[in-house]
Design brief:
Strand order of the largest sheet: 2-3-1-4
Number of strands: 4
Protein name: ATPase
Strand content: 15-25%
Distance between the termini: 42 Å
Radius of gyration: 14 Å
InterPro entries: RapZ-like, RapZ_C
Largest sheet: 4 strands, parallel
Number of domains: 1
Oligomer: single chain
GO molecular function: ATP binding
Pfam families: PapZ_C
Shape: globular
Organism: Herbidospora solisilvae
Order of helices and strands: EEHHHEHE
Length: about 130
């Protein structure tokens, strides 16, 4: 079975990586960065994960993205599938989404490589 590669990133750090699917989380989902108590936390902190995963639409988008990955993998010449998901700074929404998608795909029996390009970069000043 081919590998699914998931990479989270922040649009404010660099261009999106090349991927089969690029998911832009900036416009439709509230940014935890706007909450001073969450701003300097990352997706590794439970309050950030809870905030992102409780945002309306996130679970539906994870499920839809997992279905899209499965569709790519079912193609006649299926190889590795790459998903890139981005938010503004790459510390909150994108890595939480990527972790949730990776968990969902692993539970479905797929091999997943997960990378967070910008998670450990400094908070972007806006």
């Amino acid at each position: 079975m081919p590998v699914v590669r998931i990479q989270s990133f922040g649009y404010l750090h660099a261009d999106p990586p090349t991927a089969h699917l690029v998911i832009d989380l900036r416009q439709h989902f509230r940014d935890p960065h706007v909450s001073p108590e969450l701003r300097h936390m990352t997706a590794h902190d439970e309050p950030v994960r809870t905030t992102v995963l409780n945002t309306a639409g996130i679970t539906d988008l994870v499920n839809a993205t997992a279905a899209a990955v499965t569709a790519f993998l079912s193609g006649p010449s299926a190889g590795q599938v790459t998903v890139a998901d981005g938010c503004a700074g790459g510390r909150h929404r994108a890595p939480v989404f990527a972790m949730e998608l990776a968990d969902r795909l692993r539970r479905a029996g797929l091999t997943v490589e997960l990378e967070h390009r910008d998670l450990d970069k400094p908070v972007v000043q806006r």
